[in-house]
Amino acid sequence: MNVANAIKIIPAWILLGLILLVGCSRLPNFSKPRVEATDAFRSSKVISYRDLTVGDFHAKVLPEDLRSNQQDLNAHTSIAIRTLSGAKYVFSLQGDDSSQLWCGNAEKLAFEAVMLTEKSWWSSTLAKDKEVYVLQHEQIHFAMMEVAARQLTRRVTKERAQFVNCAANIEDVKDKMSAIVDRYIAELENETLRRHEEFDEATSRLYAPKVQQKWFDRVMRELLELSEWKNIN
Asked: Which of 107, 122, 166, 176 could cysteine-pair with 57, CB 3.0–4.6 Å?
């Protein structure tokens, strides 16, 4: 007798966070992009990728470990990659009475970039004539994260077969699938950090609107090229 009537559906909730800072003459440790613990983001209000405004920065103060450097910062932006709603893992019991296995697969696994508004800070002392430059800078960071999210969606869609795993215990299947996701996230994390830091090195050490505009144009082209991987659910 075939057994396939036991099915479990689990939301696939994954969050990768980066803290992105700008506003210093060089890039000391406090101002470099870095990975933040995911638990810190779960209660924060977010906005999906769009054009930013100064009003999107809701944090009243910097995190405690950055307050001593406040005079060196123009903005502090928290941006994350998360799964789109509808993404899920589906587990089913396969086989017959003598041999049964739990098998799992990912369905509608897609990603988006979000800004965590309550953890993003804007300097109240920033000169008005610098606002456009700084806001564009933060927009580029946001756009690069959306590019990374779409690239991740494209990759997991094309490599969906890798998520199919079976084991006698459903927990073992979950562990195998989690390991695959962890690998994808780790690779994305490393690539993304390098790119954000390269951008900051080129534009945060001095006022370089022409250089920054080239970055902006490049990232906008990338978003357009990846438009089919936006909101694929």
From this structure: 122
